[in-house]
Design goal:
The structure is a homodimer. Chain A has helices at about 5-15, 30-35, 50-65, 75-90, 115-120, 135-150, 160-165, 185-195, 210-225, 255-260, 305-315, 340-350, 370, 390-400, 415-420, 420-430, 445-450, 460-465, 475-480, 495-505, 525-535, 540-550, and strands at about 20, 40-45, 70, 95-100, 125-130, 155-160, 200-205, 230, 240, 250, 265-270, 295-300, 355-360, 380, 405-410, 435-440, 485-490, 510-515. Chain A is built from 22 helices and 18 strands. The first copy, chain A, has three domains: about 5-165, Thiamin diphosphate (ThDP)-binding fold, Pyr/PP domains (Rossmann fold), CATH 3.40.50.970; about 185-325, TPP-binding domain (Rossmann fold, 3-Layer(aba) Sandwich), CATH 3.40.50.1220; about 340-525, Thiamin diphosphate (ThDP)-binding fold, Pyr/PP domains (Rossmann fold, 3-Layer(aba) Sandwich). With about 550 residues, chain A is of the alpha/beta class. Chain A starts with a helix and ends with a helix. Chain A is globular and about 65 Å long. In chain A, helix 6 (about 135-150) links the parallel strand 5 and strand 6. Chains A and B meet through helix 2, helix 4, helix 5, helix 7 and helix 15 of A and helix 2, helix 4, helix 5, helix 7 and helix 15 of B.
Chain lengths: ~550, ~550
């Protein structure tokens, strides 16, 4: 009969959990030992727990099923918390396994003793402390079922060491799936009326509505009734590119959202939240829906999105309406001194088919959506919860979920440093991920935010130094090489083009440090002309709307 | 009248909080802006919150007063949690400032919204959410007073953005100090009787009892009554070296503690806990005090340690009894291929006067206490809470607290990677810290623990790979250089001697990668001979005891 850890692993594998992102300690040694007996479980070692949790997020976004984590008590969970937060906001299924002291050992308040449950509650509504070896498999199948229920979530199972090492483990088959609830027919009727109306209407797509069949159904409805599709600002996974419906994302800056929603009378939410400002700003509204706009909900996060969109399309007779699809279109190759926009143009120029694009470039990625809109169809993974340090780990997980697909991760220099240990796991697992570090040697977004929050127009040297990353300048080439990754630096568009072409052509991980100027202090003002230029690429109702608002 | 952030900074500075270790985001921009107006506050930027919290720990251990942190919402707190855990176990005073969304913005569940209080409870019994700008200064002075009360603690103040940016901030003077409670005279009488008895007695010193006057008082009592002094296994700060009482630390391995406490009839705790095993192991005891030993408490963490030791010494007439002091003694210079022990010998050979020694070398530091016992008087800072990734940040903070003292940090390769971003702050602040990375390319301690927990004698390749850091090998020289630190690699004792000598002679940060073999699989067996060899250096009652137990 297996011990607890062996039974846990076998039960996980039977439930389809085949990858574990780990950073174990002594209390998890039986789990580690049990790996030898379980060929169905791949264990991916990380050097920091934030890499493990972020990788589990990226894996599940692409695999559509959970990975496990393996974390060392409350402190390991703490280290992994920021990326579990991002996963929670992404509605990603994760089976979060946290080792603990033996049940009888907690009485002694040893050095690593802490209240694990309080920490876990921050990211998991389902938190369970396993009590017995015999009952462990039941805990595991419940954790998997909860994680995979709609909406997906992070389920945290705390496993005391003696529950792991005890004899008498049971192996259980998975529980049946828990289907989402259906949207009532009456609700579909209401939404159909809204769609048929002549008032300006936006359908805001989030979560599962940004992928596959759901996305196509929404696009058919939108085409038939001249509805504008928008996407939530930070989607967990969004299918886009040539041959797919183009959906503009809500802007990060509230000022821009005001433009996007100006004149809209009906906002239909599909697995999305009504837009709110990322942060509060003095004297500005947090809730971004115009007062004259009615908000409707076609499907909540708990409901069956595809069924709801199918029912609505049927009610409207839009099942076969041709959707407006993005044409294939790549930006021209730029030249000269490198800039954030030129990086995005080269990415748009070269993005290979079936790519997975991870965007944590912050301010440097402002033009990425525009320049990749007509690239071959790809998946976009973004920073769902705002806790930076998510991009590199998510790229690790996505590459493990989809070993045949190229992964391209655009990461700001500041963001890269939170979970820079990801580079080691990329090298160790020889993952085909190209990491582009957009290095402007600054927390550039905070230069903008310092002004936006009204905290003084001309910040002094001491305040500015808190946003400055040039003293010392980080050498990302040495940093990448130190963890075994082929790394190069570029400061011209031509060099960057060559480096990216080479990286994408070769399997295994690559790092490109793109040196770009930090010239974003006036970014807010330059955003609108930026968007204006994009209108030539992307003719859509939104384009007309923006033009009417901001053209000189 | 100042805004909330300005009033908060001025109030902190008036209360003696002069350093802030930060990693700010948008919700903390008013704090950042207010730095321009407050010359009394030094802001030290970190690239990861675990560096900020660990540095605040190291600073306060050496400065004897708190630093502030500045963290970005629940996720920033999460990233800083492991080192706040270490600070909590160290009883370090920290004023932990966590920015939050504006009070009215939390209703909208924006991306970074999470339950901050649940996370803070893991490390702080005092958690307060500031409610008004006018009341913020009162929150701040209470936080400082709570942090500095005995026992010191991590006080967490959550500051919503609108409380920071609001007008009408008040600046308040600090609250009066809160003195520790006194040990009742009757308790001193009981302990005096125990000390006078003939039964074998150990006095276990922890916390404040390992420093200055308290340490000397304990040593006088010990000398007069043939009591053995022991120190808690992981002290926050321990004064030791030539001219100071030598106090052997409790061993990490429970097996060794059994030897240390064998035959002991009375255990007197002074600001220390009765020893328990770091982890639980199948079939082994967690509580390490022998059944035949009575446990007494001279002073708890809440009581006045110096007053208690003074009263006991007076009662025993030991106030002027000469303490046994460690003689000056340095190990000889080793030669040939480098090993963990040779690193420790060279450190003992070269340790400069007034050094601050940070030990997070794990298995590689096993012989460090022995080889530095007779070095010039120094402070030793250790891994109090077991959450690794503490050493580098603590070195940052200690160097800022004591700019005139050399800091030497011995860090295992695995441990270094958790908070490797510390290197950047070391370079940025040009701190005179010498970092020695003991690189055995392994989580070596886990190789030992895998056996100790009884999880299979011969682990397979898959299990072993979870403890292996050689694929790829991390190049710490490149890693250090990437963040602007002068870095060299050594693989011989001669080279290491030269490199350490050079590093200690030059101001500013240095990194030395010490390549050492990973030959610790038999460490448990080799520990005893190791200790036996040390007996020649350190003749003490413990030496006799150990010899009687383990000599062949």
């Amino acid at each position: 009969m297996p011990n607890g850890a062996q039974a846990m692993l076998a039960t996980l594998v039977q439930a389809g959990v085949e990858v574990c992102f780990s950073n174990p300690g002594t209390s998890e040694m039986h789990f580690v030992a049990a790996l030898d007996d379980e060929p169905g479980m791949r264990a991916v070692l990380t050097l920091f727990e934030g890499v493990a949790t972020g990788a589990a997020d990226g894996y599940a976004r692409m695999a559509g099923k959970p990975a496990a984590t393996l974390l060392h008590l409350g402190c390991g969970l703490g280290n992994g918390l920021a990326n579990l937060h991002n996963a929670r906001k992404a509605k990603t299924p994760i089976v979060n396994i946290v080792g603990d002291h033996a049940t009888y050992h907690t009485a002694y308040d040893a050095q690593l003793q802490s209240d694990i449950v309080t920490v876990a509650r921050n990211v998991s509504t389902w938190v369970r402390q396993a009590q017995t070896t015999a009952g462990l498999a039941a805990d595991v199948v419940e954790a998997v079922a909860v994680a995979m229920a709609v909406p997906h979530q992070v389920a945290t199972l705390i496993v005391p060491a003696d529950v792991s090492w005890g004899d008498g483990g049971q192996i259980l088959p998975p529980l049946p799936p828990r289907p989402p609830t259906l949207v009532p027919a009456a609700q579909i009727d209401v939404l159909a009326e809204v769609c048929r109306g002549k008032a300006r209407t936006v359908m805001l797509l989030g979560g599962r509505a940004l992928r596959g069949e759901a996305l196509m159904l929404a696009a058919r409805i939108a085409a038939q009734h001249d509805i504008t599709l928008l996407a939530e600002v930070f989607p967990a996974r969004m299918e886009r590119g040539a041959g797919l419906p183009h959906v503009e994302r809500l802007a990060y800056f509230a000022e821009m959202v005001g433009v996007q929603l100006s004149g809209v009378r009906h906002l239909i939410l599909v697995d999305a939240k009504a837009p709110v400002s990322f942060f509060a700003y003095p004297g500005k509204k947090s809730y971004l829906v115009p007062a004259s706009c009615q908000v409707h909900e076609l499907a909540t996060a708990h409901q069956d999105v595809i069924a709801a969109l199918t029912a609505l399309a049927q009610r409207l007779g839009a099942e076969t309406t041709p959707a407006r699809l993005q044409e294939a279109l790549r930006p021209p190759l730029p030249s000269g001194e490198l800039s954030a926009e030129k990086v995005c143009m080269v990415v748009g120029h070269l993005l290979p088919p079936e790519a997975i694009l991870v965007d944590e470039a912050q301010t440097s990625g402002v033009s990425l959506p525009m320049h990749t809109a007509g690239a071959p169809a790809h998946d976009l993974l973004t920073l769902t919860g705002g806790a930076i340090g998510q991009g590199l780990p998510v790229a690790v997980g996505a590459a493990i979920a989809c070993p045949e697909r190229p992964v391209l991760a655009l990461i700001g220099d500041g963001a890269a440093m939170y979970t820079v240990q990801s580079l080691w796991t990329l090298a160790r697992e020889n993952l085909s991920v190209t990491v582009v570090i957009l290095n402007n040697r600054s927390y550039a977004i905070l230069n903008v935010e310092l002004q936006r929050v009204g905290a003084r127009a001309g910040a002094g040297a001491k305040a500015r130094s808190q946003l400055d990353l040039q003293h010392p300048a980080i050498d990302f080439v040495q940093l990448g090489q130190s963890m075994g990754i082929d790394s190069v630096r570029c400061s011209s568009a031509e060099d960057f083009h060559q480096a990216l072409q080479r990286a994408l052509a070769q399997p295994g991980p690559h790092l490109i440090e793109a040196l770009i100027p930090n010239d974003l202090s006036g970014m807010k003002l330059r955003l609108l002309p930026h968007l204006l230029r994009s209108l030539d690429h992307l003719p859509r109702p939104l384009a007309r709307l923006v033009k009417s608002k901001v053209a000189p």
